[in-house]
Amino acid sequence: MDLYTELGVTPVINAAGTLTSLGGSLMEREVLEAMAAAGRSFVEMDQLHQAAGRRIAGLVGVPAAHVCDGAAAGIALMAAACMTGTDREAIRRLPDTTGLRDVFVVQTSHANPFDQSLRVAGGRFLRIEPDAELLRQAVVRPDVAGVFFTHAWFCMGPSLELAQVARIAHEAGVPVIVDAAAEVPPLENLARFVNEGADLVTFSGGKAIGGPQASGFIVGRPDLVEACRLNDCPNMGIGRPMKVGKEEIAGLVTAVERYVARDHAADMALWDARVAEIIAAVADLPAVRAWRQLPYGVGQQIPHAAVTWDVAAVGADHQEVVRRLMAGDPKIAVQHVSPESYDWSTFTEPELRVHPHTLQEGEVAVVARRLREVLGG
Questions:
Q1: Are 231 and 240 spatial neighbours (Cβ–Cβ below 8 Å)?
Q2: How many angstroms separate the CA atoms of 50 and 272, rounded?
Q3: Taking each helix axis from N to C terminus, what angle separates 222-231 and 45-60, rounded to the nearest 10 degrees?
Q4: Residue 88 maps to which CATH number?
């Protein structure tokens, strides 16, 4: 941490989860060693991309894969692939979509700020309510390039299931692309969405998988995965500024290898013990309510402690408690979920979430003690 000290940057105890704003996740020694080793040689990047894609596809059990610069870059590349295929002239033109199909059908409950990544590639959205007949009418439009589907804890509104969406889209010859950035664990989700009919799915490498933050990968149909690769760096396409380096590719491959082989039951037991410690620390405070909670949906199934309270009794609202935790020594980050902070979702009441999987050895006791002090003071 000497560099942080030299720069005047203070490290944070992260109880907020694998948020991009806090640096994603921490990498294990083997991942860092793989990155360091990759940095000691030159390599043909096209060859490395193709080899890494084959390795990841084999590890997770999908037809094809491509390493990209995070899941947001993956969204842009998936959209580009649907619009251009492997047509290199069209690839060079994006985000100019003249003459190309460029509309992506999306259910209203899936609209969120990460949509911007698709628009960066030149795509446009056609939003529909979650209704099968409306979807059938939409996908036959001549300007539709694909259907965009989001699996995320904050997409809590009504939604058609992915398998049904895929059946309807495929009847019209339209591909389905899925943003599943944080949708592991469980491990099985790395192949699940492809098995349910998705043509392309993107995951973050720098969240639960434990790879470099500037990494992610796309899995799915081989021809469309190849189109993603051709739209990506080092080729002159929309992904050229979304460069993932040889070091990140090596680190991600190693992280995926290790994630597939992890003892996931042991991880869950550790996380549950940490959540229980947080809840116990505030359980006897009269105005405070804390409980074990799993994220909404089918992915990122890591338990966390959800905490809320009577603001008048505590004398501080949720935002103020977040501020006090970050103003302390050490600085502690927790996740604040509120109707204002997630205004595109369906939250009605604010809560703090204390996540166990980004805490290091000994940190849960520090977080529990400080949370009790702030809420009990």
A1: no
A2: 39
A3: 150
A4: 3.40.640.10
> Residues 38, 43, 48, 49: is their CA dihedral positive or negative?
positive
**What is the domain extent for residue 171?**
42-261
Tokens 């996931």 -> residue: 264
The radius of gyration of the chain's CA atoms, rounded to the nearest angstrom, is 22
CATH of residue 13: 3.90.1150.180
Residues 74 and 14 in one domain: no
The answer to which of 47-56, 187-196, 340-349 has the lowest mean pLDDT is 340-349
DSSP output for 190-241: HHHHHHTT-SEEEEESSSTT---TT-EEEEE-HHHHHHHHHHBTTSSSTBTT
- Determine the pLDDT at residue 16: 98
- pLDDT, one tens digit per residue, over 175-210 is 999 999 999 999 999 999 999 999 999 999 999 999
pLDDT at 1: 57
Confidence of residue 377 (pLDDT cuts 50, 70, 90): confident
CB under 8 Å, gap of 24 or more: what pairs does 10-14 form? 10/331, 11/330, 11/331, 12/326, 12/330, 12/331, 12/332, 12/333, 13/330, 13/331, 13/332, 13/333, 13/359, 13/360, 13/363, 13/366, 13/367, 14/333, 14/355, 14/358, 14/359
What's the pLDDT tens digit per position in 220-229? 999 999 999 9
In angstroms, rounded to a whole number, what is the distance separating the alpha carbons of residues 228 and 220? 11
CA atoms within 13 A on the CB side of 170: 12
Percent above pLDDT 90 for the chain: 94
